[in-house]
């Protein structure tokens, strides 16, 4: 009977000791080794303007997005779509990955998937020229030329010198002239 009590006392003592191992601010944020304002380096210059680890933007999805873009350029839309999907799972707030997934879904004519991906991308990146250009191209592939035109024009208003938007507007005008039945 004495042995289980001694074991319980030792276990509770260990828990108390280990709970004090983490240092945190009063707001619960664990401190890193970031320099304070006015600190100087070993060479005597200030840390101001130097990039620290917290300044670097890195997402777990970066490698998957880079590979997906290569597959997309090689017109391997299924592979690119799988990689963009992987990127969205690794970093759900990566708007570029969602735009890429939507574009791949357009190319394999899975417009149900592309609509969902475009909706998510819009929440993350907003109404950028790339967003409106991609949505316009999606509508062009579907044969919804009026919707394509309105999106291409929104992209053109935001980026009038973008050659991709200009080429898509030309493509749209040739699609209207050369209707096939």
Description of the structure:
With 181 residues, this protein is an all-alpha fold. Mean pLDDT is 79; it is low at 18-26 and 51-56. The chain contains eight helices and no strands. The chain has helices at residues 2-19, 62-73, 77-90, 95-107, 111-125, 129-142, 145-158, 163-177. Helix 6 runs antiparallel to helix 7 (145-158) and helix 6 (129-142) runs parallel beside helix 8.
Characterize this entry briefly.
This protein is mainly alpha-helical and 181 residues long. It has helices at residues 2-19, 62-73, 77-90, 95-107, 111-125, 129-142, 145-158, 163-177. The chain is built from eight helices and no strands.
How many H/I helices? 8
> Gyration radius, to the nearest Å?
26 Å
Gross geometry: elongated
Look at the structure and give the mean pLDDT. Answer: 79
User: What structural class do the secondary elements suggest?
Assistant: mainly alpha
Low-confidence stretches: 18-26, 51-56
Report the portion of residues in β strands: under 5%
The largest β sheet comes out as: none
Number of strands: 0
Helix content: 55-70%
- SSE string, helices as H and strands as E: HHHHHHHH
- Our measurement of the CA-to-CA distance between the termini, rounded to an integer number of angstroms, reads 90 Å
């Amino acid at each position: 009977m004495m042995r289980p009590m001694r074991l319980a006392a030792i276990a509770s003592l260990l828990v108390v000791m280990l709970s004090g191992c983490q240092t945190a601010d009063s707001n619960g944020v664990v401190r890193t080794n970031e320099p304070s304002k006015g600190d100087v380096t070993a060479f005597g210059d200030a840390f101001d303007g130097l990039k620290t680890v917290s300044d670097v933007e890195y997402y777990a999805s970066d490698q998957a997005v880079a590979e997906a873009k290569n597959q997309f350029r090689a017109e391997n839309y299924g592979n690119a779509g799988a990689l963009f999907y992987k990127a969205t799972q690794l970093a759900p707030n990566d708007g570029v990955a969602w735009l890429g997934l939507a574009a791949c879904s357009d190319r394999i004519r899975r417009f149900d998937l592309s609509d969902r991906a475009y909706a998510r991308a819009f929440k993350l990146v907003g109404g950028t020229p790339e967003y409106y250009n991609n949505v316009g191209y999606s509508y062009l592939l579907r044969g919804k030329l009026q919707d394509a035109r309105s999106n291409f024009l929104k992209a053109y208003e935001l980026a009038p010198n973008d050659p991709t938007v200009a080429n898509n507007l030309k493509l749209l005008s040739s699609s209207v002239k050369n209707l096939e039945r």
